[in-house]
Design a protein that fits this description.
Elements: E1 2-5, H1 10-26, E2 33-37, H2 41-51, E3 57-60, H3 64-68, E4 76-80, E5 86-91, H4 96-107
Parallel strand pairs: 1-2, 2-3
Antiparallel strand pairs: 1-4, 4-5
Protein backbone atom coordinates (compact mmCIF):
# COMPACT_ATOMS: atom_id res chain seq x y z
CA UNK A 1 0.00 0.00 0.00
CA UNK A 2 1.42 3.34 -1.03
CA UNK A 3 -0.08 6.55 0.34
CA UNK A 4 0.79 9.88 -1.28
CA UNK A 5 0.52 12.85 1.07
CA UNK A 6 1.86 16.33 1.85
CA UNK A 7 1.96 18.43 4.99
CA UNK A 8 -0.02 21.21 3.28
CA UNK A 9 -2.88 18.80 2.42
CA UNK A 10 -5.56 18.96 5.15
CA UNK A 11 -7.21 15.59 4.31
CA UNK A 12 -3.74 14.00 4.29
CA UNK A 13 -3.07 15.33 7.78
CA UNK A 14 -6.42 14.01 8.99
CA UNK A 15 -6.00 10.48 7.63
CA UNK A 16 -2.47 9.84 8.91
CA UNK A 17 -3.47 8.72 12.44
CA UNK A 18 -5.95 6.23 10.91
CA UNK A 19 -3.22 4.88 8.61
CA UNK A 20 -0.91 4.50 11.62
CA UNK A 21 -3.60 2.54 13.45
CA UNK A 22 -4.17 0.17 10.52
CA UNK A 23 -0.42 -0.15 9.97
CA UNK A 24 -0.09 -1.47 13.53
CA UNK A 25 -2.67 -4.16 12.74
CA UNK A 26 -1.29 -5.00 9.29
CA UNK A 27 2.38 -5.61 10.08
CA UNK A 28 3.56 -8.77 8.42
CA UNK A 29 0.51 -8.88 6.14
CA UNK A 30 0.59 -5.62 4.18
CA UNK A 31 3.52 -3.36 3.44
CA UNK A 32 3.01 0.36 3.96
CA UNK A 33 4.88 3.27 2.39
CA UNK A 34 3.98 6.93 2.67
CA UNK A 35 5.36 9.25 -0.01
CA UNK A 36 5.60 12.95 0.75
CA UNK A 37 4.79 14.88 -2.45
CA UNK A 38 6.04 18.37 -3.41
CA UNK A 39 6.69 19.30 0.18
CA UNK A 40 9.19 21.11 2.36
CA UNK A 41 11.20 18.60 4.38
CA UNK A 42 10.89 20.44 7.69
CA UNK A 43 7.11 20.72 7.42
CA UNK A 44 6.86 17.04 6.53
CA UNK A 45 9.01 16.04 9.51
CA UNK A 46 6.88 18.14 11.87
CA UNK A 47 3.68 16.49 10.59
CA UNK A 48 5.15 13.02 11.03
CA UNK A 49 6.17 13.88 14.59
CA UNK A 50 2.75 15.41 15.35
CA UNK A 51 0.83 12.40 14.04
CA UNK A 52 3.10 9.71 15.51
CA UNK A 53 3.50 7.93 12.17
CA UNK A 54 6.01 5.07 12.30
CA UNK A 55 5.42 3.34 8.97
CA UNK A 56 8.13 3.76 6.30
CA UNK A 57 8.21 7.12 4.54
CA UNK A 58 9.92 8.52 1.48
CA UNK A 59 10.02 11.92 -0.17
CA UNK A 60 9.34 13.06 -3.72
CA UNK A 61 10.12 16.78 -3.41
CA UNK A 62 9.99 17.39 -7.17
CA UNK A 63 6.92 15.19 -7.74
CA UNK A 64 8.45 13.28 -10.63
CA UNK A 65 7.99 9.77 -9.23
CA UNK A 66 4.45 10.27 -7.96
CA UNK A 67 3.24 11.80 -11.23
CA UNK A 68 4.46 8.70 -13.10
CA UNK A 69 2.03 6.66 -10.98
CA UNK A 70 -0.92 8.68 -12.27
CA UNK A 71 -1.59 10.55 -9.04
CA UNK A 72 -3.63 13.68 -9.76
CA UNK A 73 -4.98 14.58 -6.31
CA UNK A 74 -4.03 14.28 -2.65
CA UNK A 75 -4.31 12.16 -0.73
CA UNK A 76 -4.11 9.15 -3.02
CA UNK A 77 -3.63 5.57 -1.89
CA UNK A 78 -2.44 2.87 -4.28
CA UNK A 79 -2.67 -0.85 -3.57
CA UNK A 80 -0.06 -3.13 -5.13
CA UNK A 81 0.16 -6.92 -5.09
CA UNK A 82 3.35 -8.52 -3.77
CA UNK A 83 4.62 -8.80 -7.36
CA UNK A 84 4.16 -5.06 -7.99
CA UNK A 85 0.90 -5.09 -9.96
CA UNK A 86 -1.41 -2.15 -9.22
CA UNK A 87 -4.63 -3.67 -7.86
CA UNK A 88 -6.50 -0.53 -6.85
CA UNK A 89 -6.38 3.21 -6.42
CA UNK A 90 -8.33 5.46 -4.06
CA UNK A 91 -8.40 9.24 -4.30
CA UNK A 92 -9.33 11.20 -1.20
CA UNK A 93 -9.19 10.75 2.53
CA UNK A 94 -9.65 7.29 4.03
CA UNK A 95 -10.56 6.56 7.64
CA UNK A 96 -9.42 3.34 9.35
CA UNK A 97 -12.53 1.37 8.31
CA UNK A 98 -12.25 2.58 4.72
CA UNK A 99 -8.57 1.65 4.58
CA UNK A 100 -9.23 -1.83 5.99
CA UNK A 101 -12.05 -2.30 3.45
CA UNK A 102 -9.77 -1.23 0.58
CA UNK A 103 -7.03 -3.59 1.77
CA UNK A 104 -9.57 -6.42 1.87
CA UNK A 105 -10.95 -5.53 -1.57
CA UNK A 106 -7.70 -4.91 -3.44
CA UNK A 107 -5.23 -7.13 -1.58
CA UNK A 108 -7.45 -9.87 -0.14
CA UNK A 109 -6.16 -9.34 3.40
CA UNK A 110 -8.51 -9.37 6.40
CA UNK A 111 -7.46 -7.11 9.25
CA UNK A 112 -8.97 -6.84 12.72
Amino acid sequence: MLNVWASWCVPCREEMPAFQSVYSQARGKVGFLGVDFLDEEGAARRLVADTGVTYPLAGDPKGTEVLELGVTALPTTLFFSADGVLRGLRFGELDADGLRAAIRRYLGQELP
